[in-house]
Amino acid sequence: MPAIRTCAISGACARRNNLTKKRKGKIKMKLKKTIHEILTFTAAFIFLSTISFGQTSAINKNQTNAEPKTIKTKIDIGGYALYVNIAGAGSPTVIFESGSGAYSNHWNLVQPEISKITRTFSYDRAGLGKSDKRTLTKTSCLNQVQELHTLLKNTHVKGPYILVANSYGAFLVKLFANTYPKEVAGVVFVDGTDEKYSEFLAKNLTPAQLDVFKRYPDPDGTFDEHLLGAQQIKVAGKLDALRKKPVIVLTADINVTLKQYANTPMVIAFPHWMEWQQDLVALSDKGKQYVIKGSGHVIQQNKPQVVINAIKKMLTYDLKNRPIPSCKTIELSPEKLKRFVGKYLFAVNDVLTIKEENGHLFADIPYLIQTEMCPLSENEITTKDNDVAATVLKLTESGIAIKSKYSPGEKNIIKVADDYHTLNECWASGKIAEAISKCNEVKKADPENAAISENRLNDLGYDLLGRGKIEEAISVLKFNTELYPDSWNAFDSLGEAYAKTGNKKLAIESYEKSLQLNPASKSGTDALKQLREEK
Asked: Would you say the pTM of this structure is higher than 0.90?
């Protein structure tokens, strides 16, 4: 999982996800479309300035944090150069630190949105992505922190900084904060790894497993070098630099990560993962933790809007790190609270759920963090203490109206029965006729709705196939060919599904149709050739 060896294990996890190379190429498109949908309301935040995007290969030393430019280039830090992606304008600057072996593009679903508000900075560490290899013979966390500090100096990007770190990046962020405490305003850990994790593995892996870890090539350092980094963090941590600064900890859904890493040695550390996440929270008197349901380890790609919201929450702190006062709430009787309880149709495949437990309301808002809600009046509730979403829910005759603190408008959604199934839930539960009916209703009302796009249906089919729901998967992929009869890819996917189930006749027919639409498809040509040879 996390931190140590995530370059190897995260990659293996992706391969095990029953995704073909073809499907992997679509994930980015799918996520971009998801973000676009989210932005129609939940992320319709106020744009504080108009950003003009350009590109340059050099950085003017007189450039200030107020210049709204995008810079993508390599910067020399003393004999070797690191790739940077700097966008937006304003202060504080948000710095993104990726997991082990990961590149700056791991933040490509988050950085563009934050750059509309303030200056952002992502980069490839030495030996990764577009950056040069370091000239040092050994790697350590302290070396990497010093490289980042030099890079910031040479790009003339000044503090204060908000540090955002996924996985192994937490090692570097903690060390950076303690090494340069006056330059750090706050930290967002995105399923960050605590140094206790690497120490646990060192003590509990078998000799054979440890040998694999130690031999695996990693630009972020060997296993022993990571252990050295853990010691460097412990020594620097005595400075307690984050104690009075805001810290937000986003923690992945343990049930999802268990599946992702079930066949790896690292799974032995999972019983302690939540404990280590709470250790990150305890770094600050202002620490807050949010467990992100449905997200794997790389939350910025699984649930990017949550990370965006967390950073925006961090930006509501002033430079002295005092939180903006929360709005005034009132108390309501349990009977009045229960008027809000229920399921509300947020979008075709998303339901907002409100529950009442022991006199408290909790809302599970799509794309946002599940949070406690507090009454503003008899008909309005809001996220507690202006939590990450800063959302107000107001009762209406047909359901509720949702308004984000950062949004100029409201979204009205209707209340649905407790046993309501979304479109995707219908497909997954085998209610194929109902799913097709819902698809046709959506197509009639909103032909461009992303829920019925070719890519969405295609990905849903693969997801069901990977979960062993063969009949359901084929029904989705077959319907996709009916909805998009001119798509070679839809037929290609259906052919692959049939082939996996052993139905060579229908697989061949689907591939033949795909190649009629796109004779240049190498994957289709190769698959068809193999099927015919086997037949």
From this structure: no
